[in-house]
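Anyone able to model this chain together with nicotinamide-adenine-dinucleotide?
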Amino acid sequence: MHQSFGAALIDGKGFAARLLARLNHDVQLLEKETGTVPGLAVVLVGEDPASTIYVASKRRQTVAAGMRSFEHRLPTTVTESELLALIASLNENPSVHGILVQLPLPAHLSAGVVIDAIDPDKDVDGFHVANAGRLATGQEGLVPCTPLGCLMLLKEQLLDLAGLNAVVIGKSNIVGKPMAQLLMAENCTVTVAHSRTRDLAQLCRMADILVVAAGRPGLVRGDWIKPGATVIDVGINRVEETAGRPVIVGDVAIEEAGHARAITPVPGGVGPMTIACLLANTVTAFRRQQQIGS
Ligand code: NAD
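re: yes, here you go
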């Protein structure tokens, strides 16, 4: 980064490492108290290379945090009823406290049907309609991992978010919508923007908090960012570098964002928080199933 770059880089990687260390400590205490540890079941259908890498990484970190990992790999040809039967058995299994079905699923399987078959209290991705409803109505539930991680970073930076103007770019069910709900719950004034929003640049200039989850490299330019704003870049975009080597970039032209108060780099910002929050959700689900307070 250029020497005159004034924004703090938000160290999501370091935050996630500290969170995982704390979870590992909590798991040891929970094991002493209950004689058992949280268990996370991950279901992978097919052999999508990116999904296979994510699942391996989830398994590694689950074990590193002292929890049990159950991995179920199913062939691409699996039928919906076979997959639903597996989920039903995981719902009933007392050693499994969290269930995650890796997305995307092959085209013949409906993600909506499959997710809705998961016991909402074991839905550690927070995608079940019951958990979306709980979040929207301020009830205790399980919150999607990526926006939960973004909120943790924001609270560490700003402590109290009440009264701040927040703009969220993107309205997906897994990032944008739950992010907006979480910011509303913190008493921010929230605007959700998307691909049909008019004059996005002007809207962004009002934001004390700007969360960008569009999947468009370099969408947000420096002059869209209010001086002193806190910027969370959720985007993960693989772009070809001139030398032909692919690089990962976010949705914000970070080299133009030096006048922000703080910004998450890509990689090393939001990304590492997602798996850490998945494990945090698994510990939360375990506590609730064992009726242990936090
Ligand atoms: P999505 O494709 O489901 O949704 C994208 C949203 O952005 C849509 O609401 C769309 O209207 C909006 N959008 C697209 N182009 C836009 C534009 N030009 N202007 C304004 N809005 C625009 O994507 P998603 O699943 O929400 O993910 C968004 C990004 O975040 C992707 O890059 C994805 O890879 C990344 N992501 C990162 C993590 C992580 O762990 N860091 C997790 C999930 C998603």
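The two ends are 40 Å apart (CA to CA).
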